[in-house]
Design a protein that fits this description.
2 copies of one chain form a homodimer. Chain A is an alpha/beta fold. Chain A is built from 18 helices and 15 strands. In chain A, the strands form 4 sheets. In chain A, strands 1-2-15-12-10-11 form a 6-stranded mixed β-sheet, sandwiched between helices. Chain A has a 5-stranded parallel β-sheet with strand order 6-5-7-8-9, sandwiched between helices. A two-stranded antiparallel sheet of chain A has the order 3-4. The longest helix of chain A has 22 residues. The first copy, chain A, is globular and about 70 Å long.
């Protein structure tokens, strides 16, 4: 029996707010600090490690977090989710993105279809299609091979697949598995589509239109933009376009597309990277084998999320520490700081994943909650950020919890030794240094050079950004956000907050405005 | 006589916290809302307008903000700054970036040099060099024209110039003034340099090494990376490399460079886009005339910052409203949301500009302050953000003040009409709709579909992203941040918070670590 209760009704939450907080400067100093960092380390899938030595927790706090996990039935709720319960209550939907990478529990049959089989079939269809394109069996009107694939989508149809593509583009080059270059069109700003199309060899390009409903304004507009450009170039648009959509959407049955790959209502946009939304473009860009390796990494990480022991379930542990920082310590933001240029757009993906899932003020029954929920997520790769916003993180008046990510090896293995170390060593030295600088600080009589410390962080450490480890990283954060939604008793799988703007924008375009909206419309010459 | 006092010692600040706050939903509704939006509008330079109709202020609050501006002597402090006072007290330096685009007050002579003349001479030197490159008078070893320019720099040597290049790249293409393609290498991650170098035709590339001190670890490392690549390609590195540095730096007199352009200690990295740091690459990429137009736009906006009347000084007004939101209303973040794909990296530049300048806990005398200072800055272009983190902005438990930017016209003028409107109209309709949705909200009995409203925003509206309007936008935010620093009594022009990490990283690389730092170093295989 699962109970969906607000966080502030739980005994363990009350207890959590009464435990003595940690003095991070103290516990991270000297040999005790060393022991702590060794001890507070949990293995993730695919060789990743979640190390929380520099988080503001200790054994006492962890013990209460374990109670909270139990009282809030986090693992039971995850089990209900992957076994097909209606977790997305607002929209009366199942939540099945985990099935794209493995069968975690029972078969889930909906509308007479085994959903795991359905998702796998779509992945296979995309794989077969990609293989034929790579083999020159599916070609353009002139019988020539396609060389570029362009994703036309926005939000979840853009951020995740784009972050993954950028993360693996250079890895694929050095591993000789970059089959096609990928580009992305997302914004309704006409300059976005125009700029991408200017840079693409249209005659050898495939365009994937990605919209679950088939009604997303930006995506349909950009689809027309692309069709216009293809037609003006004397090409047959239907020979260059694919669709990723739901089976019931207007796009699904159209002869305007060379092929269509299907998703369904049980996978939210921001959780769709492992469905056909990511599968079509990533299989075309890198080959289906690489996409399968991403799925394997994600699936392995999902398996860990079934563990009831918080020390064997890094995503749940990360989620619980985040709740402690947000609700007890009162920190409103989290910065995501990957020390890898390949992960340059991963923070933007996590920003959507987290803020769209848990940026809510009502619980899953639509009742207002009396506590803060999802934090602001932002971030840039290190070491770049060190020369930018880290000043505030070190010496500003607010404390921002930090999520570092670092890898022992680069992707391209091209490196130089300067002053006795490689660039990769310098990169790693910097992230190690930052963790300790943030946690321990450094006293200085010149207050301008004084560092208070006490800034908590965790780090995920891996061998290299590759398909498996990237899949595991993706799934870790998806599951972290899911567990936090369970703790806060939210529905993390709808997004009603995006609706009002859409309605008002339509009104502006129909010139059906008054009051302030009319004045803004006039100022913007609409 | 200028008095440098903490914010909480000012009578007007006490008064500010006692004025009745605005009910944004109420004041933005109906015809009163329309009147308000019309009235709360201040012209900026180059056809831009700062509209703050949807901010949580009214005439009463504005009256106290005007008092605060006067009591804190904001314009007098700006005057002292551009006339050459030692405003950067921590480092005992003048603050002279405004002189790169105009002489706002008296001649500033330091170390026997008229600084305006010095900066202009460096811009002219870069312009002459660029003209010769474009004319084929300066060529590679084979006598061929250079086609690409690569900036090697980090932080302020990267973010501002990169944001400006991306903002004008497509504008330059359609206006036939894209002279050379620009690329950027910043991160010490070896994959950053390796990936850029893989994509660059080395034989026809110029590399600009940008480091004021000539000692920035990342930049020197990447310089060696580039030299290695050039040498391996059989090229003479000294014929492909330029330096932007201070006259006293190790880079300045080296024969390793084809040319060197100078900056000095009186221009901080994050304020250096209009110095040779931006001037060299932007003159090479777009031609010196385009760079001059950026300077003109910035200079025109600087002139407005001299006005004592807050209603004629949009940067000061913006700064004051921000202080009200931060210190009285208690909002810890600001989101920057440009409705222009061209401005995709402008939020990252503002993030550095703001957070590195005002992320401080001590005043200009090194004494701790008892109030919060610089906010967290983050943002992505609209409409993309609408399909990502806007969910939290609309319905999350925290309120985030918003800074929209919108333009009436696109840059490339390639557009399509779908459902009766162009993409540009859709883009503008969306930003208008969002402002009103955030401010007014919409009541719904289904609490999940309920929008509280009361989320304040302002919008800067322009005709188009072009060199002049971009220069004005850049200067607006520089001056806003400066005025906020004055209000908070901070030194906005140093960055001591970046030092500790550097020191510890060096220790890691020298294997001189113990405690937690040693464990992290081991975990990362350093």
């Amino acid at each position: 029996m699962i109970n969906w209760n607000n966080l502030d009704t739980l005994a363990s939450y009350k207890e959590l707010s009464e435990v003595k907080p940690v003095n991070l400067v103290e516990v991270m100093s000297g040999e005790n600090g060393a022991e702590r960092v060794k001890k507070y380390s949990v293995p993730m899938a695919e060789g990743l490690t979640y190390n929380f030595g520099a988080k503001s927790v200790d054994d006492d706090i962890l013990a209460v977090l374990a109670k909270l996990a139990e009282e809030a039935q986090l693992v039971e709720k995850f089990e209900a989710l992957y076994n097909g319960a209606v977790i997305n209550t607002g929209e009366n939907r199942l939540v099945l993105h985990h099935l794209t990478r493995g069968q975690l529990g029972e078969a889930v049959v909906a509308e007479g279809v085994d959903k795991r089989e359905f998702y796998v079939a779509q992945q296979q269809k995309a794989a077969d299609f990609a293989n034929k394109v790579h083999a020159g069996e599916i070609v353009n009107e002139a019988g020539e091979k396609f060389t570029t694939v362009v994703q036309v989508g926005i939000g979840g149809s853009d951020l995740g697949p784009r972050a993954i593509y950028l993360a693996l583009e250079n890895w694929a080059k050095v591993n000789d598995t970059l089959k096609m270059k990928a580009e992305f069109i997302s914004n309704v700003d006409p300059d976005d589509a125009a700029a991408v199309l200017n840079n693409v060899d249209l005659a050898h390009a495939l365009f994937i239109v990605v919209s679950k409903s088939g009604t997303t304004l930006e995506t349909l507009t950009n689809e027309s933009f692309v069709r216009d450009a293809l037609t003006k170039a004397g090409l047959d648009a239907s020979k260059h376009m694919l669709a990723v959509t739901s089976e019931t959407s207007p796009l699904a049955k159209s002869t305007d597309y060379l092929a269509a790959f299907f998703m369904d209502d049980f996978i939210g946009g921001r959780y769709s990277s492992c469905s056909a939304v990511g599968g079509a473009i990533l299989s075309l860009a890198f080959g289906p084998e690489v996409f399968a390796r991403i799925l394997n990494g994600a699936g392995a990480q999902d398996e860990l999320a079934k563990n009831k022991d918080i020390m064997q379930n890094p995503s749940m542990l990360d989620a619980l520490i985040g709740v402690y920082e947000r609700n007890v310590l009162g920190y409103p933001e989290t910065a995501v700081l990957p020390y890898s240029q390949a992960l340059s757009r991963f923070p933007a993906h996590l920003q959507q994943l987290d803020m769209e899932s848990n940026g809510k003020s009502v619980n899953r029954y639509g009742e207002p909650v009396n506590y803060v929920t999802g934090p602001i997520i932002f971030g840039e790769p290190g070491t770049n950020g060190q020369h930018s916003f880290y000043q505030l993180l070190h010496q500003g008046t607010d404390i921002v919890p930090l999520q570092f990510v670092g890898y022992k090896n680069s992707q391209m293995a091209t490196d130089v030794v300067i002053q006795g170390s490689t660039s990769q060593q310098k990169l790693c030295a910097n992230v190690a240094a930052q963790i300790v600088a943030f946690a321990c600080g450094k006293a200085d009589d010149n207050r301008n050079k004084n560092f208070e410390g006490g800034r908590p962080s965790s780090i995920i450490i891996g061998e290299q950004v590759n398909p498996e480890s990237l899949g595991a990283l993706l799934a870790h954060f998806e599951n972290k956000v899911m567990f936090q939604g369970f703790v806060w008793n939210l529905n993390s799988f709808d997004q009603e907050g995006v609706q009002l703007g859409k309605v008002l924008a339509k009104r502006v375009l129909a010139h059906e405005t008054d009051g302030a909206l009319k004045v803004y419309s006039d100022l913007l010459n609409i």
